Amino acid sequence: MKLVFPVSLFRYYVTNPWLIAAFIAVLFLLLPLLIVMSGLFYPANEIWNHIVNNLLPAYLINTLILIVSVGLLSFLIGVNAAWLVSTYRFKGRGFFEYALVLPMAIPAYISGFAYAGMLDYTSPLYTFLRNNFGFETGQFLFFNVLSLPGAIIIFSMALYPYVYLISKAYFQQQSGNVAEAGASMGMSRTAVYFRLILPMARPAYAAGLSLVIMEVLNDYGLVKYFGVETFTTGIFTAWFGFGNLGAALKLSVYLMILVLALILIERFHRRKKRFASTSSVKRLNRIKISSRYGWLFFLFCLIPFMFGFIIPLSAFIYWTISAFEIISFDFVHLLINSFQLATISSLLIVTLTVFLAFVVRTYPYMIPRALVRLSTLGYAIPGAVVAIGILVITIWLDQHLNYGRTWILLTGSYVALVYAYLVRFMAVGYNSIESGNAKISTKLDQASRSLGVSKLRTLVQINIPLLQGPIIAASLLVFIDVLKELPLTLIMRPFNFDTLAVRVFEYASDERISEAAPAALVIILIGIIPVYVLSAILKQKNNDNT
Amino acid sequence: MSLRLNLIVMLFIIMVTSCHTQRDEVNVYSGRHYKSDEELFRRFTEETGIIINLIKADSDQLINRILLEGEQTQADLFITADASRLSRAVDHGILYPINDQALLHMVPKNLREPNGHWLGLTKRARIIVFHKERINPQELSTYEDLADDKWKGRILVRSSQSHYNQSLLASLIAANGHQSASDWVEKIVDNMAQPPRGNDRDQVKAIVAGTGDLAIINSYYLGLLMRSTNTEERRVANEVGLFFPNQEDRGTHINISGMGIVASSKNKDNAIKLIRYLLQKEAQEYLANENFEYPVLPQAEIPMLLQNWGAFKADSLNIGKLGDYLEDAMLIFNKAGWQ
User: Fold this and answer.
1) Which residues of B touch A510 (CB under 8 A)?
2) Domain at A16-33+45-320+330-545, CATH class
3) Model's pTM, two decimal places?
4) Overall fold of domain B20-123+256-303
5) Cys-Cys link to A176, which of A70, A282, B243, B330 (CB 3.0-4.6 A)?
6) Is A50 within 8 Å of B198 when comparing Cβ atoms?
């Protein structure tokens, strides 16, 4: 460790172009969040006291139950399924390896609409059971899906792929040597899994889990429809219901603190453990197992795939077909809008995150690291709150940069919307790139630098090629996220500008699920393309490595 | 670097193309998300050549957006599906008083703001629907009566987040006072058949499924169920009866969709043209036929289905008064634990 005096450290910060550029980027991302944080200084008024006394306890309890349960279920499904398809040979393995990612193409709220529609009293399923088997179906047959447990299951089935995808990439690229070492010491594959692989895979699944938890914290569509009151619905209630921006900002700050605490706890536990590995990538040999276990594993993979993908997808196909005549298929412009937004945003985010992750890697000091981490917090904040922060900025700019005309330049523009997506989805890109970086030994950078290669060339020629997998993963994750994004888009989109997600939400909340179905189908199908490409590239990469 | 240059050029193009040039247009911020509205807007553009730019979102979010945008707002016309939200918009000073007396007088006095800040577009009644076999309509009388112990475990109603429930409670506060309304909410929570979940249509289905015996819903949802393409939904609608509460006293609570011109609007004339178009007999009847809402224009013909429901006495309270009690209503709901 190099000891530096504060003054010279300061001079170092302000003269280093990499750090300056990083600070500017971080400031740009942090600004809306700082505006939100200013809510802390709003005086507590009557509404705020009312919220604290009557509503906050329920928000807190429901939110905690949701993130703990969904986190646990996603972990159990995601990590175990990733391990099964990575290490065993069983019927359907090759299929499930890629199929298990597919639920990612269906946003949780769309899946929620599908289940609520299916388990509804007048749904085709219940009607069929009633009319053909004389079942006295109550309002809901199995259990009331519009409830906290219902939301937990739907979230888990929709979000476990985040854990699965990152864990699988880790298992397949990193655990070959470990498994071999374990085997040479006489450990069974199961023992290797629990005692070596799982503890080592922690950065991977922690990254996946934090994405899952943040998705849950941000969700508005599902919890609103299911009547589960969380922090996020509370923020909407305070801001829109009570018209009290201060209370909404205060709630948002507490939500941010909650997320920050979760991140810090995870970091603290990981502290001083190093996860880098310099050894060459070794592919895991898949073990053949008895058919009894084969069937068990098959079933384990089948359940999340069915509930997360096949069932909601079939429901939307059914609705689309059954209401074919009354549906309009004017999607082309919506499709172009959604596609454009998603492409531009993911390109920008990946460029920014690769750069920031490289700076943090090259200058592993507290301050840059903490600042960059903070700048990804937008992901944990409901889209609507990010929107407040951005709107305050763009309106201020529009008012102070007077162009001598009456029209507005930034507010309600495409640029502002993309800016909002950047603030909102930085974490998606950053987590993926960072966990990729964690696997690349810093010795490579040091070697490159000691040979007199510039930092820029090190980044372009060493770091980026090694990050190929994470970069592709990051861009696709962001792409899908933007495609699905709802609350922020609803507030910030320009005039006459709709996305597919907006269309689905409008029809579904209008109780016109069958008219929402075709747009939902399009979102799902477009979502499948990147998932497929991602899988194909990862597969290619695996083959190259062996 | 040419890539960087390209990016800058691209961003510049995006910024330029996202600007609005002055055209003959009107910008609508609407809390109503019905296809019928968009169809009417299309016809309006066809007839007048005025282009309509539309942003649809939750009414409260739209109010906040207009507030944030301040004088720079692009909004010309604000449309919402809840009367209390219209009052809230007036309280925030974001609406402009329309002076055109002829236009104002097309709408009945209690369905518009006295100074012309907003006028009604359509109206809907908050009715009681009940299971025809399990309940004799003779047993039903008023909203207040639903607090009676005989309804324990039988009432279905959606969340207190619903604007329609908030305005209903506001009308009860206006009629009976704060304390009485507060007691009423507590009794209703006790009498609920299940915690509030789902939308108004779900409440009707829950009656037929046997979860509860009666529900408080908006009238047009029943119409939508009756005319549904799903045969099961039509069957559900046929198993329930409809009741207009409080006919012996102040009348059934009604709510409106309404519209007002935004104070900082730059296209006020076009906005007025659009308002006038939407209040035409033809447009009013179109909305009534498509959505089963009641027209606000007295001359407009009421669709057959609504005529079959019979005429009813509506609460004559000026709709604008509801907004005065909106916040009280929300506080009462939260304190009583009505989710």
Assistant:
1) 33-34
2) mainly alpha
3) 0.81
4) D-Maltodextrin-Binding Protein; domain 2 (3.40.190)
5) A282
6) no
